[in-house]
Amino acid sequence: MRKAPIRVLLASAALLVASCSGAAGGGGGGSEPGAAPAKDANLTLVVYSKFTDREEKAVTAALQSFTKKYPNIKIDHKGNQDDDKLTQSIQSGSAPDVAISFFSDNLGNWCHSGAFQDMKPYVDRDKTDLSVIPKQVLDYTQYNGKQCSLPFLADVYGFYYNKDLLAQAGYSAPPKTTTELVEYTKKITKFAPDGSIEVAGFIPSMPFYANEAQIWAPMTGAKYLSGPDGKSNMAGSAEWKELFDFQKQLVDFYGKDKLERFKAGLGDQYSPDNAFHKGKLAMMFDGEYRNAFITDTAPNLNYGTAPPPVSPSRAASYGGGYSTGTIIGIPKGVKNPGASWELIKHVTLDTDTLVELSNQIKNLPSTTESLKSPNLKVNEQFKTFLDMYGGGKLQSNPASPVNAAAIKAVNDFASRWVAGQEPDLAAGLAKVDAQINDELAQKLGK
User: Fold this and answer.
1) CB of 190 closer than 8 Å to CB of 199
2) Residue (of 106, 140, 110, 154) closest to 398 by Cα position
3) Separation between Cα atoms, residue 188 and residue 169, nearest integer Å
4) What are all long-range contacts of 131-136, with beta carbons under 8 Å and residues at least 24 apart?
5) Which residues pair with 304 in a beta bridge?
6) How far is Cα 341 from Cα 331, in angstroms, rounded to an integer?
7) How far apart are CA 425 and CA 335, in angstroms?
8) Are 119 and 148 in contact, with CB atoms under 8 Å apart?
9) 155 forms bridges with which residues in the sheet?
């Protein structure tokens, strides 16, 4: 489960806007929930997802466990279906019965356009207890009072550190505050005789690997669309200013030209040559899935995991971080929405199904009961993310029809800011606010 490149999210968002007027009608589009299938119902449910290869097989097995309750219902899981393909199928009137997407940032657009159905009538009818899902995770599956999706496993972004490199600098534990992170970075970083960087303590560039504004935001408590009217108010946010000042402090320590040259020689994020795997980077942000990559390509790496550092003024928030994840919902126009709901309810709330799937693909199960299961396979590094997930301190983006555009605008600004192209922080953030709010006005017709 990986974050999508912003260009992919924006391309998909454009199609989702089109689906507002182009989605075909069909069953289950109204407010009345569809009836559950009979126990002996004989039908096929088509499921779209982006999973491939080993992960696709594991997800198929999880979906097919539904047949224990409905033995005559067949599951046709079609992997490698991205959000563009999904939206096109909705527009053409050939939507799958159930849709799985990696990208929760698209949910606001889906809800707003009507491309995904509101499942709240089903939740209310069946008295389904959604309190078993951590609130911060449940939040990103909702939009404007509509429950347009449920979480289908989750990602939590924590902090990875090389124990050997920290020990060489005299540290036995990871930094807990942003002040300590700056101190650690300066002491751990190694420069060559010519002044070039040999080993970086922490790379402050955005975007770089998992360095994105939404993943860093919990360090200072910065939030998207935090104005009193639901609009962007970054220019009036002390938290965003603190975050960008922190970033600039570290860029100035390295020198932006040296930092760019160093980054240019590093391996790709998802390759075996990842800088953290190779000992070129001592500390970084990443999701729980990084543990599996390290086991596979750098099994001898001596590393630890921890919650991300936080602002010294927010010590009580330590233990939290950014959360997102895969979502699952009922597209508009399906023939048997009641059956779609029963499948979704099973794979998102059944403890045994979630635990087995988590063990197979190494993402976090998305209910509190599955987190506590004795059958969940956990090592020391993975436990950090389980503790964060169940700790009640996670932060996620609010569902919005402009999330993808807002995230891109902020990350683009971060790049310009550290490059010296935005010398006035407050003025630059005000421009970002205007850009996001214009996009929001267009989407909402205001």
Assistant:
1) yes
2) 140
3) 6
4) 132/349, 132/367, 132/368, 132/369, 133/366, 133/367, 133/368, 134/323, 134/366, 134/368, 134/389, 134/390, 134/392, 134/394, 135/392, 136/323, 136/392, 136/393, 136/394, 136/395, 136/396
5) 161
6) 11
7) 52
8) yes
9) 324
Identify the band that residue 446 occupies on the pLDDT scale cut at 50, 70 and 90.
Answer: low
Tokens 């600098």 belong to residue: 169
DSSP letter, residue 36: P
DSSP 225: S
CA 173 to chain centre: 27
Rounded alpha-carbon distances, angstroms, from residue 261 to 184, 195, 258: 22, 12, 5
Condensed to tens digits (0 to 9), the pLDDT of residues 246-293 reads 999 999 999 999 999 999 999 999 889 999 999 999 999 999 989 888
Main-chain dihedrals φ then ψ at residue 142, nearest 5 degrees: -120, 155
Which pair of tokens denotes residue 229? 């009217």
Residue 40 to residues 62, 73, 345: CA-CA distances in angstroms?
20, 8, 18
pTM: predicted TM-score of the whole model, two decimal places:
0.81
Closest by Cα among 224, 18, 13, 21 to 109: 13
Q: How far apart are CA 363 and CA 375, in angstroms?
A: 15
Taking the C-alpha atoms of residue 352 and residue 233, their distance in angstroms, rounded to an integer, is 43
Does 19 have pLDDT greater than 60? no
For the chain, give the number of residues.
446
Angle at alpha carbon of residue 219, lines to 214 and 225, rounded to 5° = 45
Find tokens 């454009």 and name the residue: 14
Residue 424 has pLDDT above 60, yes or no: yes
The β-bridge partners of 321 are: 394
Residue among 196, 249, 247, 242 at smallest CA distance from 220: 242
**Domains by residue range for the chain, with CATH:** 6-155+324-395 (3.40.190.10), 156-322 (3.40.190.10)
Cis preceding linkage at 308, omega within 30: no
302 to 51, 285, 295: CA distances (angstroms): 30, 16, 11
pLDDT at 147: 94
Pairwise CA distance, residues 293 & 270, whole Å: 8
**Quick check: 112 and 144 in contact, CB under 8 A?**
yes
Determine the Cα–Cα distance for residues 290 and 288; give it in Å rounded to an integer. Answer: 5
Average pLDDT over the chain, rounded to whole? 88
Bridge partners (DSSP) of residue 273 are: none
